[in-house]
């Protein structure tokens, strides 16, 4: 080959590089296939499961050998290579059962009647469509914050896919209830103390 002007070494080097490139390209392909088979066999993911990956929440509507497809809350389609399910942390909201526990954080002004705050929060949850009666909602007094007494309302929903809408409606109801009962939701504030010396300099 060299006598005919063809550099055999260059051809072999180029061929090796080509096969290495193809090998890398096929690596993820086979990873996807293996992961897809694993998902289908052990049923770690099912159609209609609600999952979260990298901050995106979607409802699974199709599982293929190479990819899984989910519809987001914004009605967009997530196409997820199956090997990512083996490499990343995926939250499956509905793996054990369809209902999930959610919460809303709220702060009230110091001096507020904490028993009344708890009562109003539970009333809002009880009157909110989409919030389950069982398990019952509950309230935790989380902390004495810098500017507020910090509470959390915990409740359960059957379809966490519509969770943002339920939370939004609950926040409207909480704000309306607090206003009606003179419960103030404070904003962050700082007290500044100025000390004046005897020679009137600050």
Question: Any key phrases for this structure?
Answer:
2 domains; Alpha-Beta Plaits; alpha+beta; 202 residues; single chain; 4 helices; SH3 type barrels; 35% helix
Concise overview:
This protein is of the alpha+beta class and 202 residues long. 35% of the residues lie in helices and 25% in strands.
Describe the structure.
The protein has 202 residues and is an alpha+beta fold. The protein is 35% helix and 25% strand. The strands form two sheets. The protein has a five-stranded antiparallel sheet with strand order 4-3-2-1-5. Helix 3 (114-127) crosses helix 4 (163-180). The protein is elongated, with a radius of gyration of 29 Å. The mean pLDDT is 85.
SSE topology:
Elements: H1 8-42, E1 50-53, E2 56-63, E3 67-72, E4 77-81, H2 84-87, E5 91-92, E6 100-108, H3 114-127, E7 138-144, E8 149-157, H4 163-180
Helix pairs in contact: 3-4
Q: Kindly provide the name of the CATH class of the largest domain.
A: Mainly Beta
Q: What is the assembly state of the chains in this entry?
A: single chain
Could you tell me the radius of gyration in angstroms?
29 Å
Describe the main β-sheet briefly.
5 strands, antiparallel
> Distance between termini?
92 Å
Low-confidence stretches: none
Would you list the SSEs in sequence order as H and E? HEEEEHEEHEEH
Helix % is 25-40%
SS elements, strand count: 8
Strand order within the widest beta sheet: 4-3-2-1-5
> What's the mean pLDDT score?
85
Number of domains: 2
The number of helical elements comes to 4
